[in-house]
Amino acid sequence: MKTRVLEKIKHIVKENQMIENPSMKDYTSFKIGGTADLLIEISSFREIEKLIPILKEENIPYYIMGNGTNLLVDDKGFHGVVLRLQEQLNRISIKGTRVIAESGVLLSKLSSIIVDHSLTGFEFGSGIPGTMGGAITMNAGAYDGEMKNIVHSVKVFDGECIRDISCEEMHFGYRTSDVMKKSYIVLEVTMDLKEGNQEEIKAKIADFTERRTSKQPLTMPSAGSTFKRPPGYFAGKLIDDSGLRGMSIGGAQISEKHCGFVVNRGNATSEDIKNLIGIVKKVVYDKFGVLLEEEVKYLGGDDESIC
Ligand SMILES: Cc1cc2nc3c(=O)[nH]c(=O)nc-3n(C[C@H](O)[C@H](O)[C@H](O)COP(=O)(O)OP(=O)(O)OC[C@H]3O[C@@H](n4cnc5c(N)ncnc54)[C@H](O)[C@@H]3O)c2cc1C
Questions:
Q1: How far from 283 is each of 182, 184, 189, 239, 280, CA to CA, in Å?
Q2: Residue closest by Cα to atom 2 of ligand 1
Q3: From edge to edge, which strands make up the β-sheet containing 252-254?
């Protein structure tokens, strides 16, 4: 990255927020990917407001990430700046049944605080390993719950200014929202929950945790469910019924435990994962006429998706 641009960035964020040439393996749950030119740990909304115009002016590609739990970074890395909204944007405020969380708050952390306040409605989020920003982008959900059901409004940077968008205006759908379509950067989420019984809330979370640990390959690096659920089917079952359970290419494998997960056996490359995904899609389509669509997002290489 040009020194002149780095100098401009240093006027906005502290040096210890900037990591040059980070290995993206260290920032994703897949543990895969080459280096980015620069990663910045964002610590305030103001930094976003100031950085984006500079990156645009200098024609530098940038990508917004949260906890990297739904991300496959290419082996060639990403020639641009990764803005990471995680560790340093983690304030939470709770007044009555209204919960406000900054985009970097982890769902697991929020879940345990919500339990302390005996609020119900967020139990589904307890085992999802991402941030609030990622959860809004993906309309994350599990066990019949999803973000859409509890969001009141979302504070975003829309490329020009910071504004509040109502839940309806976010156009949440199955594992989608307007975030990517409109290149929003999620800064803060306001949610409305309900008063509940703490023991019942804890029991529900314990049930979800048990279902997750017994069925999902949580001890292996992955990005969760690789594919979206096709209408009327389950991706994992289609893959299993296609005889692909346990199939591997290089270090990438269809999980033996849950066929909806592609896992990294330790040394997988992004190429291995993509090749395996390609085969799964072809075999399932040939056998059942169902075209699986990836839930996982790609960053870098030829699939570069840049904000
Ligand atoms: C073991 C495991 C289990 C999982 N279980 C579930 C599950 O039950 N349900 C479910 O829905 N998902 C699940 N996931 C997937 C993942 O945790 C969710 O998609 C989560 O919402 C991603 O959040 P993240 O912060 O990690 O986002 P990232 O992976 O960092 O990013 C995902 C997308 O969101 C965008 N993004 C992230 N933050 C922002 C922001 N602040 N502003 C704008 N865009 C942003 C990124 O650009 C990217 O497009 C699972 C993953 C794993 C590894």
A1: 34, 36, 40, 8, 5
A2: 224
A3: 248-249, 252-254, 262-264
Does the beta carbon of 136 lie inside 6 Å of ligand 1? no
Indicate the pTM of the whole model. Answer: 0.96
- pLDDT at residue 307, as a whole number: 40
Residue 295, by phi and psi: left (phi above 0), alpha (psi -120 to 50) or beta? alpha
- Distances in Å between the alpha carbon of 54 and those of 4, 61, 81, 304? 11, 11, 12, 20
Mean pLDDT of the chain, nearest integer? 96
Q: What residue has token string 């999980």?
A: 255
How crowded is residue 113: how many other Cβ atoms within 10 Å of its Cβ? Answer: 15
In this structure, what token pair is assigned to residue 28?
Answer: 């994703």
pLDDT digits 0-9 by tens, 208-239: 999 999 999 999 999 999 999 999 999 999 99
Asked if 261 and 215 touch (Cβ cutoff 8 Å), the reply is no
Tell me which residue of 48, 24, 62, 50 sits closest to 102, measured CA to CA. 48
C-alpha of residue 139 to centroid of ligand 1, in Å: 9
The preferred substitution site among 136, 137, 176, 299 for testing ligand 1, maximizing ligand atoms within 8 Å of CB, is 137
Q: Is the CB of 137 under 6 A from ligand 1?
A: yes
- Give the integer Cα–Cα distance in Å for 232 and 217: 24
